[in-house]
């Protein structure tokens, strides 16, 4: 893994979740198993980030480590939530050389950020991004800190918990 590449991917600000990343050592294994089972079942729409022609909905457990676009042979495959029908259109628009709006450009740039994580980490990135509120920046940070599988799931769990706390839904 290229460390510099991931430093660039990581969000330099809005890093309010960092202090929660030292997950408790004694987190119940039963909880982690439940988290893991839920992440495996999460649906994603995978899309070729280069041509936007190939797209398919997968559950995490169905994702293969290496995905190549059957149309353009690109290895830059991005992932988004399964009901995101706009992103493939945006990618195709860009591929056709049409001008993107500011919002579309933002979504396109994020799609490439996710694609580079998928290219480097494959299914592990898809698993991490199955967490509630885990976007490209949080995923990049979790992957960079990854030590082993248990630690990985603890980090995802903590990121989800922090997301919920930040949103204020935890006690409702
Ligand atoms: Zn393609």
Provide a short characterization of the protein structure.
This protein has 172 residues and is mostly helical. Helix 3 packs across helix 4 and helix 6 packs antiparallel against helix 7.
Shape: globular
- Span from first to last CA? 41 Å
Largest beta sheet: what is the strand line-up? 2-1-3
Instruction: Please tell me the total number of domains.
Output: 1
Low-confidence stretches: 1-21
Mean pLDDT: 85
Cofactors, ions and other ligands in the entry: zinc ion
Q: By helix and strand content, what is the structural category?
A: mainly alpha
Give the DSSP E fraction (strand runs of 2 or more residues). Answer: 5-15%
Q: What about the largest sheet? A: 3 strands, antiparallel
The DSSP helix count reads 7
Topology (SSEs and partners):
Blueprint: H1 3-9, H2 29-41, E1 43-48, E2 55-59, E3 77-81, H3 86-95, H4 102-121, H5 123-128, H6 136-145, H7 149-167
Antiparallel strand pairs: 1-2, 1-3
The protein binds zinc ion.
Would you give an account of this structure?
The chain has 172 residues and is mainly alpha-helical. It has one domain (3-11, 42-167). The model is unreliable at 1-21 (pLDDT under 50). Helices cover 49% and strands 9% of the residues. It has a three-stranded antiparallel β-sheet. It has helices at residues 3-9, 29-41, 86-95, 102-121, 123-128, 136-145, 149-167, and strands at residues 43-48, 55-59, 77-81. The site of zinc ion has 9 residues, from loops.
């Amino acid at each position: 893994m290229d460390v510099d590449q991931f430093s660039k991917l990581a969000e330099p600000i809005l890093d309010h979740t960092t202090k929660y990343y030292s997950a408790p050592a004694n987190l119940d294994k039963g909880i982690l198993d439940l988290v893991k089972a839920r992440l495996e079942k999460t649906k994603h729409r995978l899309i070729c980030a280069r041509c936007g022609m190939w797209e398919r909905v997968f559950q995490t457990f169905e994702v293969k480590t290496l995905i190549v676009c059957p149309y353009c042979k690109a290895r830059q495959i991005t992932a988004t939530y399964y009901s995101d029908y706009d992103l493939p259109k945006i990618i195709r628009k860009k591929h056709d050389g049409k001008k993107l709006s500011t919002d579309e450009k933002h979504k396109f740039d994020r799609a490439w950020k996710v694609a580079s994580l998928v290219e480097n980490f494959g299914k592990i990135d898809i698993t991490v991004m199955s967490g509630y509120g885990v976007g490209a920046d949080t995923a990049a940070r979790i992957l960079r800190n990854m030590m082993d599988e248990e630690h990985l799931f603890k980090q995802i769990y903590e990121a989800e918990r922090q997301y919920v706390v930040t949103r204020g839904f935890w006690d409702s």
